[in-house]
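Researcher: Can you fold this with S-adenosylmethionine in place?
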Amino acid sequence: MKFHVLTFGCQMNAADSGWLGESLKAMGWEESGVDDAQVYIVNTCSVREKPEQKLYSLLGRLAERLESDPDMFCAVGGCVAQQAGVKLWNRFGFVRLVFGTDGIAQVPQALLRLTAEPKLRLSLLDFTQSYVERESALPQAAASPRAFVNIMQGCDNFCAYCIVPYVRGRQKSRRAAAVLHECTALAQSGVKEVTLLGQNVNSYGLDASGDGTSFADLLRAVAAVPGIERIRFTTSHPKDLAGEVIAAFRELPKLCPSLHLPVQSGSDRVLKRMGRKYTSAAYLAKVDALRRACPDISLSTDFIVGFPGETEEDFQDTLALMRRVVFDGSFSFAYCDRPGTASIKMEPKVSDTVKSRRLAELQALQNEQQEAMLQRMIGVRKMVLVDGPGARRGSDDPAWTGRDEAGFVVNFAAPAVPSLAGRIVPVRITQAKKHSLWGEALP
Ligand code: SAM
Ligand code: SF4
């Protein structure tokens, strides 16, 4: 069977799709281009955009091909499937499987059944009480030296604007032994860097499904896995970032000096209405503690502008926080109403014009800060984990591309042989581009 996976959304969706693809290949299925597939798997996200429309227009485009051949069909998973559920069946006859994030472990077997029983339709939308372990589907030799490792599912925070707890269920931690087993297998296949993934990794282990291992314990245990040389994690909720985890940035050499710590707003009034359970002062205190523990730490964040009731003064507080922290990167979003969330009923809504203006102002400040930070890197020696060959710059020496300790993309020239893929190489930065750095390999 030829299959094609289409993914919308965050790293967690990308990691889920990666696992699904590998599992299907392990069953003997073949991954193909979008025009050759017999089975399509669409992994959806509904955190921000208007995903239903995006999904429906995609399914509309696939309809002509899928409706003409009864052996071909589509599976829809992720947030939109969780919300729209079996309604998708009524609208698109060729959608024969709908699955939520908790149902993903059973998807490969479900797809096998569907190929054998052409009249069957299946739904895997139930939330589970605990983390459902997936069958391992790791390739013998890793395609990349970097990999994502899921450590939990769902979220218990119910921030006022966020749909995640409704579509991904309550928080369920994965057993530490399973996480370590996967990290060990990844290291044996050639992976050097793991990113531990969850909606709120700092509360890992604190739910009923946890096995008593705290997130700091888990970091220490992953750092002890032979062959794993770099560890990252995402995402962190500021209220749950424990002192022990901050200390880990000083104590664990393998823990990369970078942290994504979403603040959302610099206004205490807005943070309260968002239900974030911290103040801007508490956030800044954590930033200061992180910088004391690890002076080179690279911090990035998420912002939402135009949350209901956000005034110009609130927005100025957000700009002030950004000036005070100086983030190396940030994602900023215009607030949008999501079905079922608390903020949908909050008033007054901020107009689209004001949201766009605030977003542009915030992003201009971020670009300014990021450009200055990249310029400061010129002349600095970085250790780059090489992903593989990258863009050339016209010289005879081929270029390689990888990531430095903080996670920035670094391109550099070095001979093609021996291959540097998967190695950690010293590089001196010689040039800063808009979103990446260029350098030369050091002996
Ligand atoms: N769990 C993470 C956290 O607490 O930061 C990430 C959650 S969400 C998948 C990623 C980002 O999307 C959030 O940090 C927030 O900035 C943004 N976001 C979520 N809901 C939103 C909404 N209704 N409107 C605009 N942005 C939203
Ligand atoms: Fe959404 Fe808040 Fe949970 Fe992040 S912590 S996933 S923003 S509810």
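Model: Folded with S-adenosylmethionine in place. The CA atoms of residues 25 and 355 lie 45 Å apart.
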